[in-house]
Write a structure and sequence with these properties.
Blueprint lengths: L7 H10 L7 H13 L2 H17 L1 E2 L6 E2 L5 H4 L4 E8 L2 H10 L4 E5 L17 H9 L5 E5 L4 H13 L6 E3 L16 H9 L5
Parallel strand pairs: 3-4, 3-5, 5-6
Antiparallel strand pairs: 1-2
Helix pairs in contact: 1-2
């Protein structure tokens, strides 16, 4: 059933929200109508918040996560283990790792992954900046936490090669069989990693 005719400004906002991850037309329309239902004050407050983010938040000059001051809160935290750098593709990946509460080192956000299909080469990522951080000293381990897909693997291998001879350990998290899954439905790469990463029980 087609949506009722909406004002052009509302249609434009719905179209913009549809570009967000996981937001389709129905959800975007629901968000916009909800905001409009809350009145002009709610819209004005949201506009102010977006303006503040645009004005104040920028990539951290050290790790490229989000910062409001000179450095992000993670890089500014002297209790973090500066000898370990966890390399991720994006800010959401960093947030997911932080939520675990198990990792206490620093980070480096690449800004994507190497992709021949999308025309993204190593020069379009922050790999040179990572090498500069390692070459500056005091880094013992680089943990490469890129996606478990072809692009993530390609990026991880490129970083490992780039760090050869730099006197730093390069690791990758173990991946394997997810809990509750059936072996017959696993893809070959997942099963291969699970077998290679086996340990004593």
């Amino acid at each position: 059933m087609p949506l009722p005719k909406l004002p052009p400004a509302v249609v434009a906002l719905v179209a913009e929200l549809k570009k967000w991850p996981g937001v389709g037309e129905k959800t975007a329309t629901r968000y916009v109508l909800h905001l409009l239902g809350r009145g002009p004050e709610a819209l004005s407050g949201l506009k102010d918040l977006f303006s503040k983010v645009a004005e104040r938040v920028r990539p951290c000059p050290r790790c490229y996560f989000l910062a409001e001051g000179d450095l992000c809160e993670i890089c500014s935290d002297s209790s973090r283990d500066a000898s370990t750098i966890c390399v991720v593709e994006s800010a959401p990946d960093l947030v997911a790792i932080e939520k675990m509460g198990e990792y206490h080192g620093l980070y480096h956000v690449l800004g994507g992954a190497i992709s021949a299909v999308r025309g993204i080469g190593p020069d379009r990522l922050r790999i040179r900046e990572l090498l500069d951080r390692v070459e500056a000293g005091n880094v013992n381990e680089v943990i490469v936490v890129t996606g478990a897909d072809t692009e993530g693997e390609t990026t991880a291998l490129y970083i490992r090669k780039a760090l050869e001879g730099k006197g730093v350990r390069v690791t990758r998290p173990a991946t394997g069989i997810p809990m509750g899954s059936s072996i017959e439905f696993l893809d070959g790469i997942t099963l291969m990693r699970a077998m290679r990463g086996r340990r004593d029980i």
